[in-house]
Amino acid sequence: MKVEPPAVSSYDEIKVNIREIEAILSAPPMELPPWPEAMITLPDGRTVYIRAIQESDIRPMLGYLEQVMKVEKDFYDIVGVRVYGEVLALLRKRMKDPFTMVGLVDGEWLGFANGRVWDKTRAISLHTLTFSRRAKLGWPMYYAKTYYAMEILKVDEWWSTFESYNGWRMAGLSMAQPTKPYPEYQHELGGAKVFYLNQDMWQGRVKNYIKEVIGEDLNFKVTNAVRKANATFRVPETLDL
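The structure assignment produced for this chain is given below.
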C-alpha cells in the first residue's frame, strides 16, 4: 500500500536489510526450560525414549508426514497436513514458543507430541501422533507434553482440542476435560472448541489417573543403554496407522 507522505522527504525509497524485517516478523522467544529426556515402558515391554526434537530430525520427519497426510481415515490427512506445517514452522521460525517431543523405540520414530506457550499462564496443545498401532504410545506422548506444561512450565491452564474421535476419547472424555464457553473461546486449530485442564484438575486427579492408565510414571533417569539405542533417528519404513 502506498500513501503520499505529508512532508517532503529526502528519499523516495529506503532499502531495508531483511535481517531487520525478520526481527519484526519473528517475536522474541520466551526463556523456556528444556524438556528433560525421559523414558517409559510400553505395555509390550519395550522402552520408549521421549526427547525434544532436534533440527536434524526435521527433514526426515517432513518426508514421512507427506505420506501420513494422504491417509484418508481417522483424520490422519488433516492432522498430517497441520503437523507438517508445525514441524516446518520450527525450521522457518514461524511459531511462537513451541515445544516438540519425539518418542523413539530403538531409534525408530513412533510418537510425536507438540504444543506452544501462549503466555506465562497458558499453554496450547497442538497435536499428538503415533505411528504404530500396537505400541499404545498415545497416552505417554500426550502425558509427556501435558506434564511439561503443568509441572515444568507450571502454567495455570492447558488448552486442547481434538480433531479425531480417538483423540477425544483418550484425552477429552477419559480425562473428563471440560470445555470453555463456545464460541467466545476458540482453539487456534480451526476455531474448534477448547477443552482444558487447570492446576486443580491436574493435581487433584488427572495426573494420577494418567499414571494409572499407563502403568507407571515418566522416568527422567534415562540410562546410557536407552540413550545409545536411540542415538540414531530414523522414520518408520512403512505406515502402520
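Interim note for the steering committee: The first helix runs from residue 18 to 25. The chain has one domain: 35-229.
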